[in-house]
Amino acid sequence: MFEVYRRWHDDSDDDSLDQNHHRFQQRYDFRTYRQYFGTAADQGTLSVSQVSNIVRANFGQLTPENSMKWDSTEGSQNSFSFSGADYLVNFAQTNGKLVRGHTLVWHSQLPQWVKNIGSASTLTTVIQNHAKTIVTRYKGKFFHYDVVNEMFNEDGTVRSSVFSNVLGTTFVDIAFKAARDADSAAKLYINDYNLDSVNSKVNGLVNLVNSKRADGVAIHGIGTQAHLNAGGAGGVQAALQKLATAADEVCVHEVSRASSNDYLTVVNACLNTPNALVWGVSDKDSWRSGQNPLLFDGNYNAKAAYNAIINAL
Ligand code: XIL
Fold first, then answer.
1. Where is the GH10 domain (predicted)?
2. What does the pLDDT read at residue 10?
3. Residue 299, SS3?
4. Among residues 65, 74, 150, 249, which one is catalytic?
5. Rounded to whole angstroms, how far apart are CA atoms 184 and 226?
6. pTM of the full predicted structure?
7. Rounded Cα–Cα distance for residues 30 and 26 (Å)
8. Residue 217 · residue 227 · CB < 8 Å
9. Quick check: helix, strand or coil at residue 271?
10. pLDDT digit string (tens) for 271-304?
């Protein structure tokens, strides 16, 4: 897995990024696939000892489940709050975990004051300030950022949001540039869901990433959320291959709701991709807890899917 990851980076035409990233690789000693396996958490879940123990023992990466979203970090204009994100970052650093930032520009969990903006120049400045302030605060601590999240409709067209309505797709350029300027070492991602087979949404995303990269926008990676329905993993491998034609890296992010076999299929598909991150630890704390989507049950016991993955790694 490490070799696959390295090869993709070595294909990148940006040597300084490669060097910085190799520094991360050395610091965290990426030698086993398990270290590419992450989960989402925040202060609430990490304060539960069963959860923090599972995270320490089993996962190499952490993503803030909610604490870095716009409504958590900048609920009022230019008034930033970092307590939740700081908690997660401190936990990650204390325990030697990588951190993946999530997420800078997303139509959801977005405060009303942003949604009300009608001026292109104001919204541009607001995106720049938001991205710059957050990425600068954690400069050197995050190895990945989800810069833009869920900007596509199922048919591959661009979703209506304040960002696209006011700025067209240039909001993508603005956000990635601001993030890149603030931390040139972090790998910057565009992230979406329902990319679980080669479909219209996958094609729309691939076309956009190709065209933005041709214009010099530093989109390094594509994240695919893989909130699967049971039995829904069969097309994942082909979709990952298609996504990988457009970016340096593809990250399977936010995996949940999969059956034991689906988890295994996804992990095996990841033999051609660098990264997998499940969306939480225990079914008890999941945003979709009714569907028992995760690798540990409500009593924090490992489920069959967990054991299947560990055997596969
Ligand atoms: C979810 C969180 O898990 C919930 O706690 C919250 O109430 C809603 O958001 N796609 C994403 C994630 O990119 O940020 C979402 O996380 C799940 C769907």
1. 40-312
2. 36
3. coil
4. 150
5. 28
6. 0.87
7. 7
8. no
9. helix
10. 555 556 778 888 888 887 777 888 889 999 988 8
Using a 6 Å cutoff on CB, does residue 287 contact ligand 1? yes
User: Is 251 domain-assigned?
Assistant: yes
Q: Considering the domain boundaries, does residue 15 fall inside one? A: no
Domain hosting 125: range is: 33-312
% pLDDT > 90, the chain:
59
- Encode pLDDT of 193-244 as tens digits: 999 999 999 999 999 999 999 999 999 999 998 887 777 788 888 898 899 8
DSSP letter assigned to residue 291: G
The answer to whether residue 65 is catalytic is: no
Q: Does the CB atom of residue 65 touch ligand 1 within 6 A?
A: yes
Model confidence pLDDT, tens digit, residues 3-25: 223 223 333 344 444 444 544 44
Q: Which of 279, 281, 285, 294 to mutate to test the pocket of ligand 1 (most atoms within 8 A of CB)?
A: 279
CA distance 167 to 257: 35
Q: How many residues does the chain have?
A: 313
Atom of ligand 1 nearest to the CA of 150: 13
Answer yes or no: is pLDDT of 260 > 70: yes
CATH number at residue 286: 3.20.20.80
Residue 14, domain member (yes or no)? no
Is residue 158 included in any domain, yes or no?
Answer: yes
Residue with tokens 């491998």: 237
Q: How many domains does the chain have?
A: 1
Using the atom order of ligand 1, give the atom closest to the CA of residue 227: 18
- Which numbered atom of ligand 1 lies nearest the CA of 102? 14
Ligand 1 geometric centre to CA of 11 (Å): 32
